[in-house]
Request: fold
Amino acid sequence: MGCAAMLLALGPQTAPVPAPAAIEILADHDSRYKIAGMKEPVITLHAGQQITIRITAVKAKDHARDGAIHGFSLLRAKDRSHVPGWDFRLKPGVQTFMLNAPAEPGEYVAVCTVICSADHEGMHMKFVVLP
Amino acid sequence: MTGNRKLRWAVLVMAFTACAVFIAGADGERVFKGEVGDSQCALNVHSLSRSHQEMLEKKSIGTTSADCARYCVKTMGGVFVLQVGDKVYKLDSQNLAYQNAGRKVKVIGVLDTTTNTIAVHSMEPLK
Reply:
C-alpha cells in the first residue's frame, strides 16, 4: 500500500503532452509566403496555443543591409498593430520559432518587413485565432 | 616596455576615457543628427543612396519621404527609426517620430547599445 502510494506520487500524473506540430512556411523568391497544399496560405490557431513555425527563406530580388532577405511580422488585422514577440527578420535558409498564438481571438496578418522586391507589398498571409 | 612608458600609456588611456565620458555626458546622453524614417526603407540595401525611392514608385503610397515612412509604419509592420549615415537606431518614442517622419532632426537621448534603441529626451527638426 505504502509502495503503491509512493509510485503514484512519483509516477506521471497525466499523459505526456505531445510536442506541438511544426508549421512549415516558405518565404519564397517571388515575395510570397507559401504553405504546401494551400493556394492562399491561412493558419488557424487557438488563442494562446503553443506552436512551432519553421520558415524557409529564399532570397527574392533585394535584401536588407543586415542580411535579412524577408521579414515575418504579425499584425492585428483590425488596426495593423504589432503582436509582441512575433517580429522576425529572416536570413537565407531555415529558421525555427517557438511561439504562443495571440491571446485575443480574431484575424491577423503576417507581413514581410524587408523590402525584398517590387512585389514586397504583396507578401502577406492570414492567421485566424479561435477562442 | 619600460615602466615610464607604461605609465605614460596609462595616463593617456585615462585621459581619453575621461574625455569620452565628458563628451557623452554623465548619464550617457548624446546628440544624434539624422533622418526619421521607417525600418523597412532605412535598412533596405539601397537606402544609403535612394531611400524610399523604390516604395514611392508605387503612386498609392504618396509622394514624400514622410508619406512613405508613415505608410510603411501604419500598414506594413515597420517602426520609425533614426537613420544616421549608415547606422539605423530604433526610437522609443514613436509618437515624436511620427510627427517628424521624413524630416532631418536633432535627437537628444541615451542609446541602449544592447537593443540599439535611443531613449529619446527631445527631438527637433534641423533648420
